[in-house]
Amino acid sequence: MALEPMLVIASNKEHDYMSMPNTIIEKNYGAIVDAVPFRNILLRLRSAHILTSPQYVKLREYQDQNDLIFDCIEIIKAESDQQFFKFLEILKESEIENVRNIGTFLEQAARKKYQSQGSNQINTSERPENRSDYSDKLLRDLPKTPESHYVLREKFNETICKQLKEIDNRGGHILLHGMPGSGKTVAVCQAVRLLIVEENCFQSNGCYWIKIGNISKQELLPKLRALATTIGLENATSILSLEEINSSLEKYLQGKKRISNSLFIFDDIWHQEHFQYLTFPKKSIATSRLNNIKVAYTHYVIRTPLSIEQLDERARELFLSLGVFHALQIPLSSITALWSSKYISEDMTVSEIKMFDQRSLLKFVDFPRSSNNYITADTMAKKYFLSKRHAINLINGYAKQCQRKWFKYPYHDHYFYQHLMEHAVQAEDNKTIQEIIRDFKLMNVKLQRDKTIYGLCNDIEKATKFLRIENIENWQQYQQIVALFKRYESILLMESIDLVQALLILAYNTDWIRDCALELANKNNNDYKYWTMIKIKTDKVTSEIEPARCKIIGKAGYEDRHIAVSNPSDGKLRMLSTENNGKKGCLIKLIGYEEWKLILKVAKHNQLISKVSISSDGNIIAYQIADDWNLVKINNEKEVHFIENEVQLVNAAFNELKFRPVIRNDEIVLVTLSTDCKQVQAWRVDRNDIQCLNKRIAMDYSIESVEWINNGSKIMLWWDRSGCYHAANPEDRNDWINESQIEIWDFQSWQCLKSLQIPAVVIEKGNRFWPTNNIVDGLQLIRVNYIISNKECLLLSYGSRGGLLILENNNWTVQPQKNRLENNFYPFPSFINSCEEQKIAVSDNQQFISVTSGNEIFVFKVIDGQLGEYIKLRTTYDLLDYMFIPATNRFLIYDQTNSLYEYDIQGDSLKWNKLKDDEIEQSNCLVELYGRIFDLFFGLNYHQDEQIIDASYAYISENPVCIELIKCCKAYKLKVYGYQQVFYQKLKKPYDKCYIYDDLESAILIRTFDGQALITQVTNFLSPNGQNQQHKVLWQYIPRGSIANISLTESKYRKIDDTLIFIMEEELEDEQNEPYYWLAIGTIHLRSQKIKIYTDLGYSTEYKHIYLDDCYLITRSKERASEYWFKIYQIADDRTKTKKIAKYNYDNNGQGLACKITLPIHPSTGDGEIDFKNNVEEFLIIEKERDFVILDINGKVRMKGSNGSYKALNADLSFLHKYNFWHGKFWIGFNEKTKTIEVYKEQTMQLYQVLPFPYFDVKDVMGKREVKWNQEQSLFMVLDRSKEHIKWNQEQSSFIALDEEEYQNFPIKRIK
Q1: Cα gap 1270→478, rounded to integer Å
Q2: What CA–CA distance (Å, rounded) separates 1267 from 386?
Q3: Whole-model pTM?
Q4: Of 156, 448, 493, 539, which is the most exposed, with the fewest CB atoms less than 10 Å away?
Q5: How does the average pLDDT of the chain come out, rounded?
Q6: What is the DSSP string of 136-180?
Q7: If DSSP codes are grouped into helix, strand and coil, which group holds residue 33?
Q8: Is the pLDDT of residue 1150 over 60?
């Protein structure tokens, strides 16, 4: 493979130990290390050509400061004397005194070194006084080459030198062309340096070297401007075209004899059209990889021979094999793998690479004390890159190095992880392809390296394409993992997530993925324990459609609510967003959406971005701070300014700024709405500024909105003549005008095409809308959208009601026409409750509209001006924004956790719902898409009339069991999930609650009625056929006094003495008919049937249970306006009665309270103690032995400690063990933002594992979610009571079990 020659890294050369830089640095090594801030001067070292670009990039990435210092010093020691003096000049120019001093000291030492050797070669004054310095001045920025290159291709170099001498005498132009990597640049640099330094050519003004490369015309212009400025052309930066800059340079050089005799070197021209803008020099030489060049008649053409022709057969074969690699940085480990088939060791590989480097066939970059050495190579010939034989050798070499354990390949070899799959496909290696695509540990490493799923998904798609062509069985299954990665992207990219663990939970319904993950988990040899989902059960009806993609794009919640996307029909799809908006690390980020790659970030620390916008081609971004808009061009990252009447606007203050949604006539156009909302102005982006167009609309009224419609050919604006939108109570309603006006303007002609007047305030009567002057109770117009779908329509939002207004042809005239809505307005279906706080989105093809109702989004098809079929999308958290991606079938939802979800709204498997009458609509038989909630079935079908009353779960004989109390067709049943089956138990009476307990094979049913509580025991409830089952009333509790209502709030089973514990609240009414409560604690000893009851008759208007265990109950109660009590109750056992053992009251006047309660190890060791401290945030500390927990007044855990270690919980982390704080291996928290379960070790409080868990709609309500472990703590279940049931608006219950050991039979799955 031929490579574009580049500057050889000096650190590869052998240097004499007594060289001047080496000697000076070694003598002063400690002082240099202590004084020189190498990280801060890296860019200066690069500018002085002491560092090459690859060295600079690599050193900048160093994390370890000592390694950075060492490698910098080693590179400088290997440099020439002249370069060393440049280094000293950089030190002497530092703003830090110590750095300046060390620079001066080292320079004095260097001069003494030369004087002691009788040398006076170096003079650092500005004006050179010797031949060497003068030659350096003439050479300017000409790249240096090693001396060894002078001996290569002597005849070729002689030809170039001969022609350059001709040019020096008479003028003219040379074109050197050849294959990439054939040595063109090195040859020219060698020849020019030889002629200027040794043969006194081009002595009047030397040479100018300009790297052209693969650039556009727009990028060539600034290069020529910079050259013009360098040679002295005035006002070069104001030149706006290539033709003008070429002409200006030509005229300028005609009047500057000395400069015109300079040699201009145009290196690496990729595009034919660039030559016409490089005709200004009198003397020039150009290099190009082009073959058919049409400038041969003006240039002396030289074809570049290949250095490869001088290699022996073995070396040539090794070099050509490098053609299998891409034109990238290739690590030595990959080259060693490729050449392993030739029995070449790593040391031999380095030797061969250095030989190729000396011949300018490639560039070797060596970093001392580092394994990150690599070559920079280009592709010599396409046929070598496509070589199957070389790809096979490379794959076999990789396999040999890692014994086919691909995830163990050296982490630093970036090329391996980026291109392994591509080379496996190139080698047509079916075995390796399927190994890679099933190796989740390799995928895990790749995710950690890339920080994106883009490369991984590309690999899988390439593999799937190959397997499909080869007709490999089950190739379709591999597409499932791409969909899964995109759906859970935000979770999989979390640093704490292990991919194998994630797939065990997220891919529970994809057998092959789950089986592969189980196999890897079973082979795990370290202490890491894997958990697998064994069952998830819910009762929601749902579709199989899930988000196609999920990303996290912000960090500041609601403040990072602004996003904008470009139009992929005008360029690549890009997304603009904010991160940490309004905070210290505030950033504006532009992302390449498909590959999710950062393109640009703009730092705006501590500034609040109020709006963002992006041009349809994605090349200009706009953001608003306060009222001022800032626009930035992406190609040069420079701001563009607004120009009006040839004067730049100091402040670009606008209320709105909107780019035209498509590019027309290669113009980027935008409209703005003034800060007083009374003027619309159109603008056009011209090069580096934004020119004001002669297109302006001024109004006497405030314009509420200006929108682009009809793909940017027209704009629509509407304003409210009534003023009610800004003033709810006009002083004189008789003079009030109930009118809003809508106009459509053609952008090209800038004429008003159509105008319409509609009521500003309406009232709804019988599903029809009528104008009204009742501003307070009426519905005000808040939003207008335009749609044309066979018929023209306006989408109007009046308060919480919206709908479509069909427009007849005669409605639209230039003169405003009134429309009173009575006959042509079709409101949205009644299940859409409110669209007041959310915008309404319209797809650019006018086929879809989306409307919000709370956290639900309804997407409708629009057919002939009517709403057609629809789907419903739902998010767990509050919506921040949503939109259709232009020119696609994709829809984006952005929620308050800064999660972005993408849906394909025209997917093949998507089922649309037909609109029905209100009664049928209310049945909620909807297809739903969820961003966070995925409700799945394992053959557990619900009867459509089942209503869940309550649910409970427990471990019985170490097996997870769940029961549900349901009502179906007026009959009550107990639905039991357990022991691999689901069955019903009929109940003779209605009940309110159900309980099951760990290791108690009885269910407890509770019925409350007429101020009484009936507690019934169902024995042998796990028997499907009801064999030996009994329903036994344990207790009919009739409280003392006149009880209005009784509710059972908590229940526990105390296994040690076979006792049930019940906590009840008894509601009474005082003389003013205001409710207050008594607390009752009841115990039932199951063997003796002995019942004990304790009632606290204190007057309490509010009760909260803070803590409950087998022996103690802690409550917080409110007894007066601001008087609160903390109380501790000791629960009865076989020898004692329930009693109140401690209490403390305080006045909650805003000062707060910290209350510490110390619980005894056992009731027999003494009563609890209460300590307190005022004037702090109100919370409760419970201490037991060496453990403690801190709770807030709602019972939420704020901190957990054990044996001197503790963990503070942030606002997003909820502790899931209800009251169970003591003596376990682990405790579990749920992170509401990342949707992960966090497992902590009890004794050390260190994070043990993070499990992805996007299944629950999490809102932190005490007692709504519970976790239970089995005794070995190898299995836990989560019960969620917090969700509302869709169909019957009752509590919905779910249960889930996770386990860390292997399973044999469904439903328990265990990984050994």
Answers
A1: 36
A2: 57
A3: 0.61
A4: 448
A5: 78
A6: HHHHTTPPP--GGGGGSSHHHHHHHHHHHHHHHHH-EEEEEE-ST
A7: helix
A8: no
